[in-house]
Design a protein that fits this description.
The protein is globular and about 60 Å long. The chain is of the alpha/beta class and 287 residues long. Strand 2, helix 10 and strand 3 form a beta-alpha-beta unit. The protein starts with 9 loop residues before the first helix and ends with a strand. It has a 5-stranded mixed beta sheet with strand order 5-3-2-1-7.
């Protein structure tokens, strides 16, 4: 008998649970969920390419080989349900809630994700009266959640930007940076930020031992690596040109005085690693 399911709400979540349980038998609900999340994250990430595309594709194929063609189609249907549910109601932590409702958190490190209602309150307090003024003055701001889980706090902040009275287009005005030590949680966050159209990236690593770092002061150009997952909106033209300007600024800042050797400027994401010293990102922390 499968484990009890608690607090599943809405047609989207119920449809995913039904599809998920239809795949259990040879594999546990936990293993099927894990494969679904990781394969979905890879599918999204590989649409924008990058130097880690082949490695991630191999990971995808390794997991996909466990299932029949018909079962792979079920995974596609599950992802469709996630997309459709977030389209109907973007103001939610769909995957995080479902993860907790399926009681999967107890299978892995005893995780507990902050309820979305609490995240909404935290986002509202973090927004502040001067936030829009900062955007108007600087053109954009960056926000960071160093323990992102499935991304509820960043999702809540994106929705806070959209609320009447704020009316801020976060897709062009906010860079979202997330980090979590858990690979599965990071992938859930990546899926949801990508589907929400949030520009930014997810770093899957230990925030205490190895916090997210970038070449610039605001996190536009992170130190690239296989543990960084860029959302599709990160490559939108407005963010592309901001990275170009950030690189130019760094080039001028690292130019040595006359008669001394110049320090190489950093390379953009997806190219060879630069040699200048990295700096901690300068995002506004959400807690």
């Amino acid at each position: 008998m499968g484990k009890a399911i608690r607090r599943v709400r809405g047609d989207g979540q119920k449809a995913i649970v039904k599809l998920l349980d239809g795949l259990t038998g040879r594999y546990s609900r936990w293993e099927v969920w894990q494969d679904f999340i990781i394969m979905s994250a890879i599918s999204i990430a590989n649409t924008v390419g990058g130097p880690h595309k082949d490695t991630r594709e191999k990971e995808y194929l390794t997991r996909a080989r466990k299932y029949t063609k018909q079962e792979i189609e079920v995974f596609s249907q599950m992802l469709y349900e996630v997309v459709a549910d977030l389209e109907r109601n973007p103001d939610q932590d769909m995957l995080g809630e479902l993860f907790m409702s399926l009681d999967l958190a107890n299978e892995w490190r005893g995780q507990f994700f902050t309820p979305y209602s609490v995240c909404r309150a935290m986002a509202a307090m973090s927004y502040g009266e001067d936030f829009k003024a900062k955007v108007e003055k600087q053109g954009w701001v960056s926000v960071n959640d160093p323990a992102c889980g499935a991304g509820a706090l960043l999702i809540a902040f994106a929705n806070e930007c959209r609320r009447p009275g704020h009316d801020l287009n976060y897709q062009t005005s906010v860079l979202f940076v997330a980090q979590d030590i858990d690979f599965l949680a990071g992938c859930m966050c990546y899926i949801q930020l990508s589907l929400m159209g949030c520009p930014g990236y997810v770093v899957i690593d230990d925030s205490l031992a190895r916090p997210a770092t970038s070449w610039d002061a605001h996190g536009l150009i992170p130190k690239d690596g296989p543990n960084i997952w860029y959302t599709p909106m990160y490559f939108r033209d407005v963010w592309h040109w901001r990275r170009i300007w950030a690189q130019m600024d760094l080039l001028f800042r690292t130019a040595a005085p006359k008669g001394q050797a110049e320090v190489p400027a950093p390379e953009p994401p997806g190219t060879v690693e630069a040699t200048i010293s990295e700096t901690k990102t300068g995002q506004l922390t959400l807690f």
